[in-house]
Specification:
Layout: E1 2-7, E2 10-21, E3 30-40, E4 43-56, E5 61-72, E6 78-88, E7 93-104, E8 112-124, E9 129-140, E10 145-157, E11 162-175, E12 179-190
Antiparallel strand pairs: 1-2, 1-12, 2-3, 3-4, 4-5, 5-6, 6-7, 7-8, 8-9, 9-10, 10-11, 11-12
């Protein structure tokens, strides 16, 4: 996956993702290992390595958990964690909830470590098209700085193994740093 994010008062940034996933139906838990590298103008600033697991709790509910480690010149070295759940409400409508501690970059032109609660709802319009809404609340490691983000996205499957996603949203910072930022990103993904 390659993602380019642009912000109305900050420089562009890139996120590079890669992962190994194992989903053998004989196993109850599906493990994965993922790697993310963050860059600004193609100069790497931080990296994250995650070990994840997903498990079905019922036909419509799936749980997710993971532990990770981030390292780099931007915020240093830290352990990370996340838990979440996905609920398939109907054949086309899915809700997802996540609670995590992680590295968030480069929203509003800065980098943050923080604890985040997020929600996403996804509607599969057709076999190749999805649209959705996203909201998150983050308590950052900065003194008295909190973030609220929300936005909408659409993705389109280009083929069996590739997709493109566009996202537009807004991020509001409160506390010692009050600011409002428009966020947009374009993401291209391909599975080998």
């Amino acid at each position: 996956t390659w993602s380019f994010d642009g912000f109305d008062h900050a420089q562009g940034s890139e996120m590079w993702d890669a992962g190994l996933y194992y989903n053998n139906n004989a196993w109850w838990i599906a493990p994965s290992v993922t790697w993310t590298s963050y860059s600004r103008d193609f100069e790497f600033i931080q990296h994250a390595l995650w070990v994840n697991a997903t498990a079905p709790l019922s036909p419509n509910i799936t749980a997710l958990g993971g532990v990770g480690y981030t390292f780099g010149d931007d915020v240093g070295n830290r352990m990370l964690w996340r838990v979440g759940a996905s609920w398939q409400m109907t054949r086309r409508l899915t809700s997802e909830f996540y609670y995590s501690q992680g590295y968030n970059s480069p929203d509003v032109g800065d980098s943050w470590l923080g604890t985040m609660l997020s929600y996403r709802i996804n509607w599969a319009i057709g076999p190749r098209v999805n649209v959705g809404y996203y909201a998150s609340w983050m308590d950052t490691d900065r003194t008295n700085v909190n973030l609220f983000s929300q936005g909408a996205y659409a993705d389109y499957a280009l083929g069996n193994y590739s997709s493109i996603r566009a996202f537009v949203g807004r991020q509001d910072a409160s506390g010692d740093r009050d600011s409002n930022t428009t966020i947009y990103s374009v993401e291209l993904s391909s599975r080998l």
